[in-house]
Write a structure and sequence with these properties.
9 helices, single chain, about 270 residues, globular, alpha/beta, three-stranded antiparallel beta sheet
C-alpha cells in the first residue's frame, strides 16, 4: 500500500508535525481491543491483528485495555519491541489514565497515546449521585512536558461522556489545542457513526490548519465524506463486523484501505 507522505502545500506547522508522527497524511489508526480469542492467547491474537492491519496498509495501531487490563497492554507492547513494526505504535489506558500511559510509552518506545478527553467537564450519575470528571490540566501538562517525545491525540465531548450543563464546545476545543497534537471527535458510542454535523462543527472551530481525527464509526459508506473533513480516523469494531471482541476480518481491512488510498489521492 502506498502511504501519503507528500508535503501538502501551505501545510501548517501543526499539520507537519502530525504527518511526521504518523508518516502519513490522513492516517488510519487501527484499534487493538485486547479481547481473548478462544484458544488463541490474548497477546498472540493482538499481534495477529496488528500484522493483518500492517499488511493492508493501516498506518498506526492503538493498543487499548478495552477487553483487558494494563498488564495485557504491557505484554503486547513488550512483544512489539521484538519485531519490526511497519505501523506506528500507540496506546490508550482507559479510563484516561495518562499517568500510566506516558511512562509506559517511553518504556516501550511508543510514539503516541490516546486520551478519551483532554478538556471539558463531564457529569456521571452513580446511585443517584452526580460526579464530575475533568482532567487536572496542570498535572497533565507536567506529564506532557516531562514526556515531550510522546505525542497525544485526545477527545473533546467524547463518546460515553456527558458535558456538564453550560459547557461551551468552542472553549473546550480551544483548551484542548494547548494540550494535544490532534483533537479527536466521536459520536455517542463505539462503532457508532460520528455525526457529520459534529465533525463539521469541530472543523469550523479548529480551522483548516489543526489536525482532526475521527474517532469512531468510519466505514466504507461514509469514509469519503468524513475524511474530506477530518485528517484520518480510528477504526476498530468495523474491522470485526461490529464486535470489539470478534475476529478481525482481513478482507474488510483490505477493502477499506483500498478506498482510503483512493480518497487520499483525490484529496491531495
Amino acid at each position: 500500500k502506498t502511504k501519503s507522505k507528500k508535503v501538502i502545500p501551505n501545510m501548517s506547522n501543526e499539520m507537519r508535525k502530525f504527518v511526521s508522527i504518523f508518516k502519513s497524511a490522513d492516517p488510519i489508526l487501527g484499534m487493538i481491543h485486547l479481547a481473548p480469542g478462544g484458544n488463541i492467547p490474548r497477546v498472540e491474537k493482538a499481534l495477529r491483528e496488528i500484522t493483518i492491519m500492517e499488511e493492508n496498509g493501516v498506518d498506526a495501531v492503538i493498543v487499548e485495555n478495552y477487553h483487558g487490563d494494563v498488564h495485557h497492554v504491557e505484554e503486547v507492547l513488550k512483544a512489539l519491541t521484538k519485531r519490526k513494526n511497519k505501523a506506528v505504535i500507540g496506546l490508550n489506558i482507559l479510563p484516561n489514565e495518562y499517568e500510566i500511559a506516558f511512562p509506559m510509552a517511553r518504556k516501550y518506545g511508543v510514539k503516541f497515546i490516546q486520551l478519551d478527553y483532554v478538556s471539558g467537564r463531564y457529569s456521571e450519575e452513580w446511585y443517584g449521585k452526580e460526579y464530575i470528571s475533568e482532567i487536572d490540566a496542570d498535572h497533565y501538562m507536567s506529564y506532557r512536558k516531562e514526556y515531550s517525545e510522546v505525542a497525544v491525540i485526545g477527545g473533546v465531548h467524547p463518546k460515553y461522556y456527558s458535558p456538564v450543563k453550560g459547557s461551551v464546545l468552542e472553549n473546550d476545543i480551544n483548551e484542548a489545542l494547548e494540550r494535544v497534537d490532534a483533537v479527536v471527535v466521536t459520536g455517542s458510542g463505539t462503532g457508532m457513526e460520528t455525526p457529520l454535523d459534529k465533525i463539521k462543527t469541530f472543523r469550523k472551530i479548529l480551522g483548516p490548519e489543526k489536525p482532526l481525527v475521527i474517532g469512531a464509526g468510519v466505514d466504507l459508506s461514509n469514509a469519503e465524506v468524513q475524511l474530506k473533513i477530518g485528517n484520518g480516523a480510528i477504526v476498530g469494531s468495523y474491522f470485526k463486523d461490529g464486535e470489539t471482541s470478534g475476529k478481525l476480518i482481513s478482507e474488510r481491512v483490505s477493502a477499506f484501505m483500498t478506498v482510503v488510498d483512493l480518497i487520499k489521492k483525490l484529496k491531495y
